[in-house]
Predict the structure of FP protein C-terminal domain-containing protein.
Amino acid sequence: MGFGFLTILLLSAVCMFIAQELKPTREYKPKDNIIVVYKFPRTEDEDYVLDKVEEIGAYFNISNPLDDILKAYRSLVPKAEKPIVIYFMSKQAKERWLDIYEKRQFETYFKQGWHLMEGLQKGTDVLEEETKTRAKEWNYYKVWTDNGTVLYKKTESGDTFKVNDIEHLHDLIMNKSQAEIVYAKGERPISDFIGRGRHFYRRRHGFGQRRVGTSKRKRRW
């Protein structure tokens, strides 16, 4: 019985070791497996972006292309191109699409007029320019960059908000208030404090107030 218990214990330890060896070295992040399709034709009645993704996969002769896809959407940024952002189920699926594209890159770009890029645009200049365009439409006060972080203010004395990346800007366009990230709290205007202290003191200590049921004292000359 003791031997059997030791055998089970040993097998459990081996299984735990194997499980640790097979565990990924880092957490899976969907943003690692993104392809962005630029200048792909957009139709007026385009309601289902995955139809376009399936069309791209068919062009690459990929069977059942949607099996590789986690999600896809038409980005509202950049404003002029409105690229298709595709999230893949795995890194292997993404690389397979990229390998096929590289072999047909010349034909795709010059004959079809569209091209692929791996990952979202990370250039701060691009993000700042796009944010400025949107902020102008929303009548925001200011957009600027501080140490590589794109920031904006709605009003001069209001909170400062930050924009993480192109996808975050897309979320702001779609649902502004829920996607906002406060970078620094704004300062209250000085007008909020003028006269407040005197009013608070008079009210607390009873100055300038008349008790109920008492008559005004006549002024003596």
Observations:
- The CA atoms of residues 39 and 114 lie 5 Å apart.
